[in-house]
Amino acid sequence: MERPSQLHAEMPARPPVLRAEALSKQYGPVTVLADVTIDVHAGEIHAIIGENGAGKSTLMRLISGYVHPSSGHLFVDGEPMRFSTPHQAQDAGIVLVHQEILLAEGLTVAENLFLGRELTRNGVVDDRTMRRIAAEKLAELGCHVSPNALVRDVALADRQLIQIGRALLDAHKLVIFDEPTAVLTGDEVERLLEIILRLKAQGIGVLYISHRLDEVQRLADRLTVLRDGKMVGTYPGQSLSQMDMAELMVGRELAALYPPRGKEARGAPMLRVRNATVPGYAEDISFTVHKGEVLGFAGMIGAGRTELFEGIVGLRPAHASVELDGAPVHIRSQREAIDAGIGYLTEDRKAKGLLLQERLAPNLTLSALGRFHPGLAMNKRRETDALEGAIQSYDIRVKNLKVNAGQLSGGNQQKLLLAKVLLTNPSVVIIDEPTRGIDIANKAQIYTFIRQLVGEGKACIVISSEMQELIGICDRILVMRQGRINGEVSGEAMTESNIALLATAEADVGRAALGGLS
Amino acid sequence: MSAVIQSAPPRRERSFAIGWADAGPFIALAALLVIGFLINPDFLSATNLSNVITRSAFIAIIAVGATFVISSGGLDLSVGSMAAFITGVTIMFMNGMVPHLGTWSVPAGMAVALFAGIACGLLNGLIVTVGKIEPFIATLGTMGIFRALITYLSDGGTIPIDRSLRDVYRPVYFGTVTGIPIPIMISLAVAAIGSFILYKTKYGRKCAAVGANADVARYSGISIIKTRTIAYLIQGACVAIAAICYVPRLGAATPTTGVLWELQVITAVVIGGTALRGGKGHIWGTVAGGVILELIANLMVLSDFVSEYLVAAVQGVIIIIAMLIQRFSK
User: Fold this and answer.
1) pLDDT tens digits, A175-196
2) Best residue in A309, A352, A402, A404 to probe B by mutation, most B CBs within 10 Å?
3) What ipTM was reported for this prediction?
4) Scanning every residue of chain B, which has its alpha carbon at the shortest distance from the alpha carbon of A350?
5) The domain that contains B231 carries what CATH number?
6) Helices (H), chain B
7) Minimal-distance CA residue of chain A relative to B201
8) Among the partner residues A57, A337, A362, nearest to B205 by beta-carbon distance
9) Final residue belonging to a domain, choices A170, A204, A220
10) Both A460 and A323 in a single domain?
11) In which domain, by residue range, is A16 found?
């Protein structure tokens, strides 16, 4: 690899590290990517943005040799190249950091780092050297796990770093990041962005794909917008606001992302929880959510928010005294919570929310089967009617009613899951990460639905790791830290810095800082 | 990732694949009949076919229950020894009741068989769900228990049914209604009821949901314990019905009754199109699977060029082929 100084000095004259010219990819009659031309220079961060299905991942896979283009050319340092395997791309210095974390959980950190390219000495695997290099590489990335630790025991954020370390082990000129921050929060994202900026400073080209437009705005020297497999254009990074980017991605003007808050004063208490304890996750938590109110729960990953609510709705062992609409309810199982009128949307819609191999109607009615069997048998007709109603009300985009839930895009899956929970007619709806991994147009719709819910007199609780989202839709936000409620913000005090402070600092510090605001 | 754009071509592929998984066992069955006819025209004679299908009835009836268990994400290895145990208990009860009830001890014995079957199913179900023991291990244990119990009850020999009951009971296996053997009628009825429960009722939905993804089911307010336990109860009832049909065939229970039935049952379910890891069950496919197994055995006996000692080998090949088809049609 060349030294950064040389690269910078010669940059105008040098060909880009990577140039993709008129890349297209067809699967049968379907074009997933048409005529895309981008280039990345040494020491440049080039972001690719677009909605789900816009072709971002396909583009990355074409460049890194996982998929072969139907037409078009790749040039590395000005030389034409064809990659038939990811290995060839790696040999040419192009590495892809995958979106999903692909590590062998039962192996150690060092073993994972060197998986498939173990160092040997005299034909025997040289563990000691590999451990040493692994420790060095990870330290460079600011990851301080032991190379001997099993990946199973390593935190998610560190696994992401291990994955990056694995990609950076070989010599590289271009690093492609595919939604690297999707599973990270707060500090972890910061750490990752720093690593990416450091790569840039070393003269390495970076292709960066992300849903998070704020990150793109911070990082990108240039950005390319894809829509429906076509290139909308390449723009200088600083020239676009986040709203501009979103509109380019969607292809139309977006109304404000967040719907206006309800004007009417909040109603009577709908759900009152006192002294909720989920052993190991949350301790002695009390709160009240009112009719017509959206209550947010903020906090770092691991603060116990999901576990708290899973405990309250009977999915985990927990103690809590719960009052719903003034009457005490005793909940020992998810069934009892649903019957009482408390709906819970899991954060993990693929693994816990929907049966991906099953069609839409059985998914929709799964929590409310009782309403669809008038006699002994299920009434398919009534189910189909319910599905058509849900598709209409929640704008679920499907080609036909016979597709499986797994074939829907993330946003449509989330809307289906929302419809499924609302079919049980809950008076309190708890939504865990309402917009994780879905595109901006669907996000706006989900926010509108949440407002509609509380407009109908229901109460809504939103758990989210995206602070902007909470600030945008909630009337009031409780911030959890290490299994306890560390503070509350509302009105003008709902700012990212206040929430971040409460999410990370001791309670007194947080209160002191907020003293003047709330 | 690019769900919107990808949705068109995979769907076409998929609907084709689903068609295969659904129709596969019946196509195989039809192919087998044609091959059978080509090899030996006697194969398609009404007598031969009705004999073969009658013999497959036990496996088919038990396999309908197994479709529930497997669909809900479980497994039951104990069905063969459970069938033997229930057969023994039933015969002993009938024999004991002859002085009091006369020939009425036959229906009373059938009720006892059903009761015993449901009790055995409940035992399996509770060990798996409440005891939280892997279905494979739990039913491996009860398989040994039931087998030992029948060996003990029969004292290592046979438990023959009382002479006075033979003629009354005989038609349940050997009789016909409008020319169709009663065991075939019973297995069709069991399959019809089974498919109604699995496809039309709330319970069927829960069963498939629990098997497809237990977490999703739990988060949807479905009790996994209840759903799986009921699947084992249904399995027990099916084993009892099969045992009731089986008693008049040999007129006795022995320690070797039902040996290796569990493997045939699982084979029938799997070649019928139900995934062993759970999810959607295929009741009629299972019945077809049971018939296929027996047809293959029969075909090998009727044909000269493959020794019937290789029946198990051919059945083994069939199950592997069925799994490969399932895999590559995904």
Assistant:
1) 998 888 776 766 777 888 888 8
2) A352
3) 0.80
4) B216
5) 1.10.3470
6) 3-6, 8-39, 46-71, 79-101, 105-129, 135-153, 163-169, 171-174, 182-200, 202-212, 214-219, 224-250, 261-271, 283-302, 311-328
7) A377
8) A362
9) A170
10) yes
11) 4-93+172-250
